[in-house]
Amino acid sequence: xxxMIRSHLLDSFAVIIYSFPAHYLGITDYLLIPAYxxxxxxxxxxxxIDISKDFARDYFNSNGLTAFAISTPADLYQHGGxxxxxxGLLIFGFLYRLSHEYLIRKNISKPLADRLPGLLxxxxxxxxxxxxxxxxxxxxxxxxxxxxxxTSLLALFMQTRIISIGRKFENAATSGK
Length: 177
Known about the structure:
The chain is built from 7 helices and no strands. By secondary structure, it is mostly helical.
């Protein structure tokens, strides 16, 4: 139900289709996503603060804070038209399915102690996938890369700690201690 009531994001897509000029923005912004995520502002002082803020300024003539959000399909459209929407959402779905397959389905037969880091990682990845869809792709993917990096470090730490703790409990349970 929560996902279904978010259909208001279609309005940003409709506005862009209706009023966007014939030339597209291209993929340069997408290629810079890793740089946006990991190059600090003191090294890159002109780094854009919030690329999705341009949507309200360009389409609604709003210079202040606004509740108008651009969605991933709308952002893809303004960068490459319907072809970009089609391929971008196919890639998005493929990456989501790949993470589900690798983190959930492949590990279903393992003990919980071995699966727990992957489950935590999957929950965080799933939430980020959802949030990426509700924002401009550039902003969402920038945050996603940051989350992915720190979650990977956390999962690596958890994998070494939780597996060793889980094995201690399993050994204690089987030896009767």
